[in-house]
Amino acid sequence: QKEVEQNSGPLSVPEGAIASLNCTYSDRVSQSFFWYRQYSGKSPELIMSIYSNGDKEDGRFTAQLNKASQYVSLLIRDSQPSDSATYLCAVNMGRGSQGNLIFGKGTKLSVKP
Amino acid sequence: GAVVSQHPSRVICKSGTSVKIECRSLDFQATTMFWYRQFPKQSLMLMATSNEGSKATYEQGVEKDKFLINHASLTLSTLTVTSAHPEDSSFYICSAPTGTGGREQYFGPGTRLTVT
């Protein structure tokens, strides 16, 4: 069964620190990887996508992908209380580019002022 | 990012009634849309893939006769929960792929269904 695993947390970091969120996936042929942020009671919001090995930076967010280790991570620099949310790792394991996403159960991040 | 809307945002209905949820892509066309369900403190579970002009593809364990999907146009997909029961109470979210190669999925704001 194709799976995406995340540490459920909660992960608590002080304001200004770096938050590190990790995700592993089971399907070696997966090609597309995403991080979504979900505030309580709201729908997921896409914050990062990554398709090739290495790092991808966007503002305070950096996604890291290692296909050999089947591992993807998200770093949040200078964490703010507004970053407190559940972060969902998602992997496209479908057929073709529009295949469905498999989600991890999410890591709850709490940034303390 | 792309904008996907859903209506209604919240609905309360009596057991045995049917509820229709609409999902619209506002600034792009979507030949495919996805319907997810999320129970409290759980992750999103894909229910079905909605295909414009053809039948939806349902995930294992999802009753196609209970969750009717219609994708009549390139910007609208509807999910009808028929004969709803309290166990159908959940957060229903649609998404549509767009971006380069259609790999990125953008979610609607979700519909919270409560069946009494």
Write a compact overview of the structure shown.
Chain A has no helices and eleven strands. Chain A has 113 residues and is mainly beta. In chain A, a hairpin with an 8-residue loop joins strand 9 (85-92) and strand 10 (101-103).
Description:
The complex is a heterodimer of chains A (113) and B (116). Chain A is mostly beta strands. Helix content of chain A is 0%, strand content 54%. Chain A has strands spanning 4-6, 11-14, 19-25, 32-38, 45-50, 54-58, 61-66, 71-76, 85-92, 101-103, 107-112. In chain A, the strands form two sheets. In chain A, strands 2, 4, 5, 9, 10 and 11 form a six-stranded mixed beta sheet that branches. A five-stranded antiparallel beta sheet of chain A has the order 1-3-8-7-6, with no helix packed on it. Chain B is mainly β and 116 residues long. In chain B, strands 2, 4, 5, 6, 9, 10 and 11 form a seven-stranded mixed beta sheet that branches. In chain B, strands 1-3-8-7 form a four-stranded antiparallel beta sheet, with no helix packed on it. The termini of chain B are far apart. Chain A binds chain B through residues 32, 34, 36, 41-46, 49, 51, 88, 90, 92, 97-98, 100-101, 103-106, and chain B through 1, 32, 34, 42-44, 46, 49, 91, 93, 95, 97, 99, 101-110, 112.
